[in-house]
Amino acid sequence: MKWMLTVAMASLLAASHAQAADLPVPAGPAPAYYPVATVYDWGGGYIGINGGYGFGQSQWGDDPRNPSHLSSTGNFNVNGGLLGVTVGVSGQFGAFVLGAEGDFDWQNLKGTSGSPYCTDLITSTKPNIIATPPVPPVSTAAGLSCKTASNWLGTFRGRFGYAWDRVLVYGTAGGAGANMQTALNGLPYQTNPEWGWTVGAGIEVALAEHWTFKVEYLFVGLAGNASCNHGYSCGYDKAATSTGMPPTITPAVNSNSAVKLDENIVRVGLNFKWGH
């Protein structure tokens, strides 16, 4: 009887183990989720505003008949603020970013020189109405100075840089243009647009998906020399004369200076970017 009970218990135990082996294993806790950070894409178009400060040097010279007998004023400082708009497009290739950018700025760049090259120029006072045509009497005016100014600047440049996610370091180079305004102090400007080249570098940071902020430096060299040769604005190398009766008139000889201008620009910009 005992052996029958023992066999029955063993059978029950074996059946219970078999059923337990068929039950599903409870699942463990789900693995933690760590989102993968996306690398910022610098590709796309953008538009923005910029502002900063310009400073550089100008020089008047190359007038062989200047009354001072100097060849030039020597370099003198020009400076002023600027503010404008920027538009551009970029493409990203791995960590490298290539693109093109243009901007147009209003600027208040100006400076003066009190060199004898300027102070010895002759300016007209009031006309001599006896002569026909009237001859303006002239005098050597004390305290004259040469003024160089510019109130706009534009550039069109290529940009090439390397990106560390949201930070872009870049170089830039291309063409530039500005108006050069020239005159003796107190007289209206003679204006000439001049063209040249620009080169620089900067750093740009992505603040958000569509917004970036940059700091950059540009050097602008205007290849051409503006002329200052309008007698009224730029003075005279030689006075007009009237002799005899009826008078024999010898016209005044206008000053004829070539004016150079180079500019350094330090500015910041805020851009809105779209696309990839």
Descriptive report:
This protein has 276 residues and is mainly beta. It has one domain: Porin. Helices cover 11% and strands 57% of the residues. It is built from 3 helices and 15 strands. The protein has helices at residues 2-22, 116-119, 231-234, and strands at 44-61, 76-93, 96-113, 122-124, 138-140, 146-164, 167-184, 190-206, 211-222, 226-228, 236-238, 241-243, 248-250, 253-254, 257-274. The strands form 4 sheets. Strands 1-2-3-6-7-8-9-15 form an 8-stranded antiparallel β-barrel. It is rod-shaped, with a radius of gyration of 38 Å. The termini are far apart. Mean pLDDT is 85; it is low at 125-132.
Q: What top-tier CATH class fits best? A: Mainly Beta
Q: Give the H and E element order.
A: HEEEHEEEEEEEHEEEEE
Query: Strands of the largest sheet, in order across it?
Result: 1-2-3-6-7-8-9-15
Q: Can you tell me the CATH topology?
A: Porin
Main beta sheet: strand number and arrangement?
8 strands, antiparallel, barrel
For the termini, the CA-CA separation is: 87 Å
Mean pLDDT: 85
Shape summary: rod-shaped
- Say how many strands there are: 15
Please tell me the total number of domains. 1
Count of helical segments? 3
Query: Any idea what the radius of gyration is?
Result: 38 Å
Tell me the β content: over 45%
What ranges have pLDDT less than 50 throughout 5 or more consecutive residues? 125-132
Specify the structural class: mainly beta
- Helix percentage: 10-25%
The CATH architecture comes to Beta Barrel
